[in-house]
Automatic annotation (TrEMBL):
<dbReference type="InterPro" id="IPR037497">
    <property type="entry name" value="PGR5"/>
</dbReference>
<dbReference type="GO" id="GO:0009773">
    <property type="term" value="P:photosynthetic electron transport in photosystem I"/>
</dbReference>
<dbReference type="GO" id="GO:0009507">
    <property type="term" value="C:chloroplast"/>
</dbReference>
<protein>
    <recommendedName>
        <fullName>Protein PROTON GRADIENT REGULATION 5, chloroplastic-like</fullName>
    </recommendedName>
</protein>
<dbReference type="GO" id="GO:0009644">
    <property type="term" value="P:response to high light intensity"/>
</dbReference>
<dbReference type="GO" id="GO:0009055">
    <property type="term" value="F:electron transfer activity"/>
</dbReference>
Length: 123
């Protein structure tokens, strides 16, 4: 069904009713052109990545990078996780001793993370 627009108006090659337009030869020709199977590949997902804006910067960044290369990425991340957990516990105990509420404690933990990024501990 080709449709074209010209200066004289709208022209169409459709001749017939809607009921007969996909029955017969047109339907058979259309059915032959449609693939019977369609392959769909796995969707490509990028790994979520928490990127440090100060990566490679900071006074401790070179030490962190060299340590990661020496002990390996997996062991380094385990060690870093333990250090972060211990630091969070120290902040929590400090907040308990001064009577700070959980919102203030969370703010201090966020501040510690920002300072760690700036100093290069999260490089």
């Amino acid at each position: 069904m080709a449709t074209s627009i010209s200066a004289t108006g709208l022209r169409s090659s459709f001749h017939g009713s809607w009921g007969t337009s996909i029955v017969g030869e047109d339907f058979n020709m259309l059915a032959k052109t449609v693939p019977t199977q369609v392959r769909v590949g796995k969707p490509v997902r990028s790994q979520p990545m928490m990127k440090n804006v100060n990566e490679g910067k900071g006074i401790f960044a070179p030490i962190v990078v060299v340590t990661r290369q020496i002990i390996g990425k997996k062991r380094f991340n385990q060690l870093r996780g333990k250090a972060i957990a211990l630091h969070s516990q120290v902040i929590t105990e400090f907040c308990k001793s001064i009577g700070a509420d959980p919102k203030q404690r969370q703010g201090l933990i966020r501040l510690a993370k920002k300072n760690g990024e700036r100093l290069g501990f999260l490089a």
